[in-house]
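Regression check, pyridoxal-5'-phosphate case 221:
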Amino acid sequence: MKESLETLLAKIPMGVELIAVSKNHSPEEIMDVYEQGIRDFGENKVQELIVKQPLLPPDIRWHLIGHLQTNKVKYIAPFVHLIQSVDSLKLLLEIDKQAKKNNRIIDCLLQVYIAEEETKYGLDFTEATQLLEQSVALRNVKIRGLMGMATFTDNIDQITHEFRNLKSFFERVREQYFDDEPSFSILSMGMSGDYEIALKEGSSMIRIGTAIFGERNYKKM
Ligand SMILES: *Cc1c(COP(=O)(O)O)cnc(C)c1O
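Current build output:
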């Protein structure tokens, strides 16, 4: 499934951001992709992120894309660029608190649940709307958009349907809550197996691991 970065980049329309998902890949492998011009990298575990971050160039923008435990926010608050996996008020309050301690405003996405599979993580549309309303008072976090993952399946119609649903929810939220604000602009959807569908359905940020780095070797890190 690995493609050359050049081939991949050629398929990505203007205005869409590419996040290279480097989980389970070594700093050397990350540097290889960095040297080809990529600056946005995504990790799903705090423990792995805080080991790698000091070893790599300071102009990397680190994205947290996996489930984040409240007690681990403090480790990434000084440097994280975008937390894509906000799924509770408790977590958002802690991000706000740690951002304040670091004199920062931390950009966040709400993780919205669109897949058919059972999962513990992500908000439904009602919960996401509630969390948006509750976030208005928080000064040190900024909700920049939504993140979602489609069902892991070969059924293109199903994936299309799930992404389309998220896109239309995104547009509704943007109209209702962010009238004139361009800050709510990120719709993060699409991974190695489904990014082409996600792009068709209006994604503005894709998170690609395997197609850039090759298969993950879970014993390596
Ligand atoms: C691992 C992961 C990705 C990338 O998956 P690939 O299939 O390797 O491209 C994207 N998003 C999230 C949330 C992930 O955990």
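Comparison notes: Residues 21, 23, 44, 65-66, 149, 191-193, 207-211 surround pyridoxal-5'-phosphate (CB under 6 Å). The two ends are 21 Å apart (CA to CA). No diff flagged against the previous build.
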